[in-house]
Amino acid sequence: MGCRNRLNKSFENAPILPMGPKYNYVLFSDCHRGNGTHNDNFLKNQNLYFAALKNYYQKGFTYIELGDGDELWENRRMAQIKEIHSDVFWQLSRFYKENRLYMIYGNHDIVKKYQSFAKKKYSTFFCIENRCDKPLFPDIKFYSGIILKNESLGESLYLTHGHQASLLNSTLWPINCFLVRYVWKPLEQTGILDPTSAAKNYTRKQNTENLLEAWAKQQGQILITGHTHRPMMCTDTSPYANTGSSVHPRCITCIEVCGNTLFLVKWNTEVGYNNYLYVERTELARYNLSEKSRAQKY
To answer: What is this structure's pTM?
Structure first.
């Protein structure tokens, strides 16, 4: 099965969510939440991410995660990840309680597609304060793809992780999981990057994005993914966009869908008056579905 067929299959029976003036969504991808060790690439940005989550929750956004939310190739125990990043999961649980949370699985957390795993690992979390299990995401389902549809404009956004562009990261994922856990994870500590990763290998990154863009053009649909960790917005000539990641050394990026407009934004730490630090949201690009003003870049 080739890339095209794998992407087509990802959207078979995908849930369709309404898009329009009354709806606001925020799309995150590639958080790679880990177990708090030096291999936990999310650790350095956890405060930025939590600040962004709090902002989107207060403003009534629906949160959609486009895969690789948790690093389950390098780490075996989901309980450790939930314990280390309990503040983040608590905030996400608030979205879930209000039916404002949807999750897509990627290659690094592809085991979430198994309902038995999702039920066992994500239904509850252990509350240290009360020394008992409490609800987290009971009955949650992780999807391969989600579609946002604007009926009045006849426009749709197709959301998935993007690992479908790689045979090794999709069909042959158990092999790559083994290599990451037992080969590339130890070598990463010596400065050797995983050459099979689309996020760390420039050639693979470019090839992956070319395949995803080609599918979007062929389908005549806007495709938004993560996976390559390189943020980008649609243009006049390309219907492909990418949320970026939450593991960049200096910032986190995401895409906001506010009514009929898409915003590519970053959250980073800035220095203010008297040298105090604060979290700032910066708009990088936008795409207006109704006006067809493709990616006005700043």
So the answer is: 0.92
